[in-house]
Amino acid sequence: MVPIRWTLTIAALALGGLAAVDVHHGPAGRDREAKKAEIQAQLPATLEKSPTPAPVLANAKDTETATGSCPKDMVEVEGDYCPAPEQICDEFISEKRDRCERFRTKVRCIGKPEAKHFCVDRYEYPNEAGRRPTVSVSWDQARDVCANEGKRLCGAEEWTLACEGPERKPYPFGYSRDATACNFDKPYIMPDNFAYDDPQTRAAEVARVSQSEPSGSRSQCVSDYGVYDMTGNVDEWVTNEHGSPQGPEFQSGLKGGYWGPVRNRCRPMTTDHNHWHHGYQIGFRCCKDIDGANAVPPVSGTGEANGQPGANAWSRPEAVEPSRS
After folding, report:
1. What is the residue-wise DSSP string for 188-232?
2. Any alpha helices (H) in 68-132, and if so which ranges?
3. Based on the number of CB atoms within 10 Å of its own CB, is 307 exposed (0-12), middle (13-18) or buried (19 or more)?
């Protein structure tokens, strides 16, 4: 584990992916659209603003929620979350037994399923087909950006259900690992942690090591509910319902894995990163309650109020494997 070093400058935020967003104490009268435009203007040009033609997504799932209970850019998910599905791997890829080549196609639910009904962004933030996802975002920032758009971070269980689908598939596309279906298993590029840690060189370092792809580029990387890129591409922040701000199993969880050779399945979650951690491979997507309440799971002890660096503090990612999702 590389020692963690904190960078406490606002300039670090502006170059790291998203500038600090204070949605609670903004100027009076600033509307949501103006705030969203301000956030978009601060995204790094090396990734998020690169012009990329939007792919043609002919899948019928892309339009089925347009007249449903969710906004057009979100997908309605209604189903039973299984706390412990019996997903049995018949063939592992690596000696660590963290990547499975082939699962059995029959999945039995152990425990009592829990009914869930919610909306989830169709793509990783900024939730637009053809745009590469935003990265280098802390959990605190992701939470605030979602709140500013009238949404919230997805709960880990919600995210898992949206990925596994009604059949509780280990991968959103099925039971066998397929690096052509989703963006993962690309050769690892060793990051320069000092370049990433320096606000002046961070954007260039992110551009050098990033192997993310525009959202929706892979038509097979979609769950049965119609949600794209849930495994691979970038790691996604979620709210770990069973964690805490202090850890060691943190409330700030990461799901899905990124483009590298990591677990990249629906079920696993990385829970050892605190809420102000960020990395060149970390992004997010938002969820929303069907009834419009948008209740966010309680978050206590975060930021300076807990004697810890808040949204203006950044931690260096691990050198060898930034995420084990």
Report:
1. P----HHHHHSTTTHHHHHHHH-----TT--TT-B-TTS-B--SS
2. none
3. exposed
Start-to-end CA distance of the chain, whole Å, equals: 17
Q: Are 50 and 79 in contact (CB under 8 A)?
A: no
User: Residue ranges per domain, the chain?
Assistant: 10-21+32-306
Q: How many other C-beta atoms lie within 10 A of the C-beta of residue 30?
A: 11
Write the single-letter amino acid at 188: Y
Cis check for the bond before 191: say yes or no (omega within 30 of 0): no
% the chain with pLDDT above 70: 69
Rounded distance, CA 323 to CA 248, Å? 16
Q: Let me know the angle formed at the C-alpha of 141 by 135 and 146, rounded to the nearest 5 degrees.
A: 95
How does DSSP assign 124-158, residue by residue?
Answer: STTT-TTSPPP-S--HHHHHHHHHHTT-EEPBHHH
Backbone φ, ψ for residue 204 (5° rounding): -65, -35
- Residue 104 three-state SS: coil
Can you give the pTM of this predicted structure? 0.76
What is the pairing mode between strands 252-255 and 152-153? unpaired
Length of the chain: 325
Q: Compute the distance between CA of residue 150 and CA of residue 293 in angstroms, rounded to an integer.
A: 9
**Whole-angstrom Cα distance, residue 178 to residue 227?**
17
The helices-and-strands tally (H runs, E runs) of the chain is: 6, 12
Nearest-Å Rg of the Cα atoms of the chain is 19
Tens digits of residue pLDDT in 21-69: 333 334 444 565 666 666 555 544 334 443 333 443 434 344 444 446 8
Q: What is the CATH number of domain 10-21+32-306?
A: 3.90.1580
